[in-house]
Write a structure and sequence with these properties.
Length: 399
């Protein structure tokens, strides 16, 4: 009987999963997939590392528990005899208390519900995934891996708002997100170049959700996201940086409720709201519509501004890394974000950038510019295996 680790990323209407085999210095991807339409009629899609695929509707209405049971049924068919010994969960918010992955017990599970007001669109469903896994895999360890944990060592000035201190003490502070992605990139960079990993690094995680992280010696010292995942860069459907007076105006003059404002800022703003077309950068790049081009220009402008701000926080810049769906695949965004930045030491090689090479900076560039693929699921699996004492990564294991 072989042991495997399962990772779960549970959202309001979906469950993404991956399964990994375990070796002392390596996790092997066995399968990955997702269930869409949780809460109603579901669609199941999965594939194994060997290429076997499954796609089909699931009969009847499915909640998170039934959806995960469908995942278990498929895994048992594809990986006969395998035993799930650990389940790693993406949990968006660890609050001020959790700065590392956590083996979940009854007490900590209750405590994680306390952070639902800090991430109301994510946390309840992340925890529903844990609850479903407790029923599906009662003998397996459940490990919560937090998107906020990587940022918990920020200095106070990068962690606070200019409000009375009592609000900070109550938990109103800058948490930062996308931490699992940044931690994976930090580990991978150390495997590729320990010297760069110990230098001043900015990582741009650009996708439907987008943020930047400033790292020194592999640790986060500042992030563009703050109390929620709304702050910083404009995103697919989220507004990014916004004068809080706008929210007061929407309340006082437009008579909008908190729920209406939340829907606007989380679901109808960003690239989608500005363009009036779509949140998909690929479609915006193909469009000749002026609103689409304006949305891209604003995205790039904020990206450049935040790169400059984080470089100031670092006291300079040695390495800039692009990752995430847009960061890894859009040579145009990378080019626009770094053009005319020789003053900062950034000089791009247009041919390498167009090919999407790992290193896309010119040989004479003082700052090394890279494109690295992120893998949050593998990061969750590694944390789970490490907590269980089953994985001991050597430097370079992720290279």
């Amino acid at each position: 009987m072989s042991d495997i680790i399962l990772t779960i990323n549970a959202g309001s209407s979906s469950i993404k999963f991956s399964a990994f085999s375990i070796a002392p210095e390596h996790l092997g991807l066995l399968a990955l997939g997702h269930v869409e339409g949780v809460g109603g009629k579901c669609f199941f899609s999965a594939r194994t590392a060997g290429g076997a695929k499954a796609e089909h509707d699931l009969d009847g209405a499915f909640d998170h528990k039934r959806a995960l049971a469908a995942v278990l049924d498929w895994l048992e068919k594809e990986e006969a005899g395998a035993r799930v010994i650990g389940v790693g969960h993406r949990v968006v918010h660890g609050g001020p208390d959790y700065a590392a992955p956590l083996r979940v017990d009854a007490g900590s599970f209750r405590h994680l519900h306390d952070f639902e007001p800090l991430a109301p669109l994510h946390q309840p469903y992340n925890l529903a995934g844990i609850d479903a896994a407790l029923h599906a895999f009662p003998e397996a360890a459940q490990v919560a891996c937090f998107d906020t944990a990587f940022h918990r060592a920020h200095p106070f000035i990068a962690d606070t708002f200019a409000l009375p201190r009592r609000y900070y003490d109550e938990g109103v502070r800058r948490y930062g997100f996308h931490g699992l992605s940044y931690e994976f990139i930090s580990r991978r960079l150390r495997g590729l170049s320990p010297q760069l990993a110990d230098s001043r690094v900015i990582v741009a995680h650009l996708g439907n959700g987008a943020s930047l992280c400033a790292m020194k010696e592999g640790r986060s010292i500042a992030s563009t996201m703050g109390f929620t995942a709304l702050d910083g860069l404009p995103m697919g459907t989220r507004c990014g940086q916004l004068d809080p007076g706008v929210v007061l105006y929407l309340m006082a003059e437009k008579k909008m409720s908190a729920e209406e404002i939340s829907d606007l800022l989380y679901k109808d703003a960003g690239l989608k709201g500005m363009s009036g077309l779509t949140n998909d950068m690929r479609l915006l790049e193909k469009s000749n519509d002026k609103a689409a081009m304006d949305a891209i220009d604003y995205f790039v402008s904020r990206l450049r501004r935040e790169i400059g701000g984080l470089a100031a926080a670092l006291g300079g810049l040695d390495c800039l890394i692009f990752t995430g769906g847009i960061g890894e695949n859009s040579w145009r965004i990378r080019d626009a974000a770094t053009s005319d930045m020789e003053w900062m030491g950034i000089e791009l090689d247009p041919i390498a950038n167009g090919r999407g090479d790992r290193i896309i900076s010119d040989e004479g560039s003082r700052v090394t510019v890279m494109v690295l693929e992120t893998d949050e699921e593998r990061m969750i699996a590694e944390h789970t295996a490490e907590i269980l004492g089953l994985l001991h990564l050597s430097e370079g294991a992720l290279a």
